[in-house]
Specification:
207 residues, alpha+beta, 8-stranded mixed sheet, 11 strands, globular
Length: 207
């Protein structure tokens, strides 16, 4: 065995096979001198989250970096070119309640036509002034998730090797769910959490 293998090992490149890795872009668009965030509404024909407001992005492909994934997905969904995107930097990554790891990037869309989006994936797009999120906090609700062991889970091992754990219970995880409403548009869930974090990071930098 060669323990020195770990000296130059990047554990993240292993990409845990049971974990979904994804990237999104927070697209900043200048509208008449005011910075807006561009959102998209997912097509109602999609199997996952149909009709939900989201940021452009999706699952990372094999061999991609998180940033490459965010750019590719944005180009595919919004119909822009890579040269139209100026990546400013990366925001905090998120681990979703189902265990997916999501990498948000902040970038400017230097050129964009609102009618060029991919109709197979996107129902429509709309803009929200960053100022709206600076001035309006989201509504907050709480959810919880808990491990549900399978019927054949070997509890006998736990009872045998941990004799005082007959009433063993899996941990329950509670988490906050955020909701913004802007002109009859609902922005919620992971998208709202990403935006809330984005606003908090900018606000903390200004103080």
């Amino acid at each position: 065995m060669n323990i020195d293998f770990f000296k130059n090992y990047d554990p993240y490149t292993n990409k845990l096979k049971s974990v979904k890795l994804a990237s999104v872009l927070i697209p900043i668009v200048d509208v008449d001198g005011e910075e807006h965030i561009l959102f998209q509404t997912r097509s109602t024909d999609l199997k996952a989250q149909p009709g939900e407001v989201s940021l452009p992005g999706g699952k990372m492909e094999s061999g991609e970096t998180p940033m490459q994934s965010a750019i590719r997905e944005t180009c595919e969904e919004l119909g822009v070119k890579e040269t139209d995107i100026e990546i400013i930097g990366q925001s905090d990554f998120f681990v979703s309640p189902i265990g997916a790891i999501l990498h948000p990037f902040v970038g400017r869309l230097k050129y964009y036509k609102t009618y060029d989006y991919n109709k197979d994936e996107v129902k429509d797009v709309f803009m929200v002034p960053i100022k709206f999120f600076m001035e309006n906090s989201p509504e907050i609700y709480r959810n919880s998730s808990q491990v549900s062991p399978s019927d054949d889970f070997p509890f006998e091992y736990i009872e045998k090797y941990m004799p005082n754990s007959k009433n063993f219970k899996f941990l329950k995880r509670e988490y906050e769910v955020y909701f913004y409403v802007y002109k009859n548009r609902l922005i919620w869930g992971m998208t709202a959490a990403i935006i809330k974090n984005f606003i908090e990071l900018m606000s903390s930098e200004s103080h």
